[in-house]
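User: Batch of two.

Assistant: Item 1 of 2:
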Amino acid sequence: MAVRIEKAGAVWIIVHDRPEARNAMDPESADALTSAFLEFDADKEAAVAVFHGAGGAFCAGWDLKYVSTLDADYPLGELDIPMAGPRGNGGEIPRGPLGPSRLELDKPVIAAIEGPAVAGGMELGLWCDFRVMARESYFGVYCRRWGVPLIDGGTVRLPRIVGQGRALEIILTGRRVPAEECLNIGLCEHVVPKGDARNKAEEIAREIARFPQVCVRADRRSALKSHGLSVRDALIQEWYNGREALIKDGVSGAARFKAGLGRHGDFARI
């Protein structure tokens, strides 16, 4: 199977394991990844996912050998048909060629990137909440060479992360964007030695999973859903979104602080 799930308590590691194709995405892998992330989002015990590509490559994009077999007059075929069943908040949107790229999960996903994350593989990395990159890894719109457009969120998410000018330069040139540059422009949050991306991502995931999860998800949801809102509308949304977390997590958390835990910024004893 091209996709496997490894569980470490509340942290799930979802691995795309198709190294013979540098984890390029074919329909079987796309369906399996989508199912894996929907399973993670629905599981009451799961809190944070780490998304990783096996064999030293995150994802080389949409499998162009598969794409070359498509009907030139109607290349998307079945991808134009919305999938049945639970789809996060995107039930009316067909599954992306890269799988989970159009899902709107209620839990965080961290990308652990080794090697290339190019074309659609870059779009999968952008779909994640944030990114840990090995020093030798890189992004790039390599599909620029072949006339294959970004249809898994790249033109939507990249400008929001790095700004319109930088995004357009990266998109239109298709050039390689190495990990250190990604860190400098806010395209990733950590750069680590080769082979350490998964370990670092899991370390961060375990830390996030320790916290009260109703609050974690409420704050994440508000940050994501504030895009496009006026300040006033965003503040209204933030208040109503956060009420449940304050009731379910905040009062009991304040009581633990009153009892002596977590004083002076101590994150160890909470």
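Item 2 of 2:
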Amino acid sequence: MNPIRCLPLLGLVLGLSPVATAQQHPRLLQFDAPERNLDTVREIDGPVRLRYEFTNVADKPVVLLDVHTQCGCLEPTFDRKAVEPGGRGVVEAVFDPRNRLGDFLFGLTVISTNGDYKKFNTLIARGYVVNRVPEWQIFHPYVLSDLFRADVEAVGMRRFRIWEQMRTRTREIRLYNTSDRTLHPRYESGCGYLKMSGPEEIAPHSEAVVVYELTPCYMDPGPFVIRSSVHADGTETVIEVRGLID
């Protein structure tokens, strides 16, 4: 058989299949607003209740079988009582912003049936959570001094092999100026094998990135702790650099 003559028939079959499937399994529910934008949610205000109202657009009664969520912070509730054609129903969900921070986008999958087949509807909840703890404290949890907090407790160089002692490893620490003053820091690496660099000026309530470069040639094998420091406004902020050579 000439394969070229098969193409129209194949195309006809493939072209009709989706249409036939769609006709056999039309949608069951139509939600008024399947996506909810909560904008800004404050954690201290507690849980937020969401309502997704729908209409049965099928020609038979429809039952909600289940509602799956993508996050444990969403707790759905719904009625399994059959909704008649043209009837109205609702899926509710409670969003708990506890211990959350920043943008969120979660989905709920509604599974329904008219007794002949199942259909899936996706519902969306999005917004932004303002945590009860200020963001700068969350992202800089370690208090290093009266002037600075940081994203890490110490700078970890981790493990060097003996044959890696001529290599330079770079790490950084993010310092946050907690004061109301502009600081002009002075950096002391505390070791000739270590280079330390950072901005000459740190504005009030802002972050600064301090970079460390360590070339451990001729350092003794074993664990090491190098005591570096940042001097500003008469305050010394000690930052340890830790690692291992073996």
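The first helix runs from residue 3 to 24.
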